[in-house]
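Entry for the shared binder. Reason: the reviewer on the internal report wants the predicted structure included alongside the sequence.
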Amino acid sequence: MARNLPLYARPAAALILPLTLLAAPVAAQTSVKEDSVVLQPDKVTDDAPEIETVAEANLPSWSVDNAKTLLAFIQSAGDEGLFPKDYNPDALKAAIDGGNQITLDKVATDSFLLLATHMRDGRTPNAARKQWFMTDGDAQTEPLIPLLGSALTANDVAQALVSLDPVHPDFAVLKAALKTAKTPADANAIRVNMERWRWMPRDLGEGYVVSNVPEYLTRVVHDGIVIATHKAVVGKPSTPTPQLNPMATGIIVNPTWTLPKSIIAEGIGSTIATNPARARAQGYTWTGSGKSLSVVQQPGANNALGVMKLEMLNPHAIYLHDTPSKGAFAADSRAFSHGCIRTEKALHFSGLMAVMFAGRTPEEFGDVVASGKTTRFGFEKPFPVYVAYWTVVPDGKGGIKKLNDLYGRDAPVVTSFAKPGRAAAVVISPTPPAVVPTTQTVQAPKPEKGAIY
């Protein structure tokens, strides 16, 4: 059956939704308010570096040729969107010329580890990464000490460093564009977005959904190929959409909507108190009253989440969902939401999710939509959703285009370029850290009366 085949092996007809769904009526509601983002405080503290001793690292010595290769790479670090002065090129050259092996090993190792940290994790300190909550496992999948050891053994220092670049082709486009940037401002804009790529996992995975907030677009990617693109409505500046990458675990069709207290206070609470019949007509049910009032909107034409919600558990209450306010998708700038991401053509999106990730047939999906009942399709294999913030992206013609920085997140990163970047993720200690010995105190016996000691 088609449901048991991978997406690329299914006949095209298996991915086409029933035609009756395409003609589903669209509600005219225009003042929808969906779940509010839970604003979390920015991360301002960088991870403490790991300490390894010389003996633990077990690194071979730096040859002069390997050190010269590192120096040449540092001098060209501008091509990577980084700054050569950060990696102590003068001291490295002096160590190469000085002929002292101990000094060369220390200076070259320090420079390599700092440069590798910035290429793998980004140079930007956490304090300049506004509303950034991405989780990045590159420290586990791309450990730096083994990388350095193999680079010195194989005499391929430059290749080892380049191997830390993000693998996505968009990063390569930015890297190429940096060489032809016409102004310092253009160069910094590109550097900011190369940095953002490095804040994310180096490899985004085989299948994922990515929403680029400044672009107002959501894409579904399979095996590196964009198989669907949807317009998106994102958070307005007062309720900005954060950067995060939760795992999507299912698609909920005909969802209910539990209203946050902030939105209850904005109006529906008053409607329930003064005109409960009107509130019921809009699909609201409730328990309690006053400060204990709890409100749920049932599935239906007026439901603020529309016909679907992508389940992606995260502490920010961010998810992708439908909306009855279809008119917002016609605007060029679509920053209207309370933080969540409204998705155009939600039937197509949720149908694709049900078929591609939950192993359902289009007919099964269509029956659930038509039933009006809340139904969850759990994904056989959860996948990441990247809610990203790139303000410079490929233009599809071999170049790049700049997008509006609607939340003003670029400036703090540019400002950080004039300051020291993140510390190296791993620090080699020439001697083992001091260890305070644990001793057991034994009380001396009291001298016997008349005894002489």
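Summary line for the report: The chain has two domains: 12-41+205-394, 50-197+408-429.
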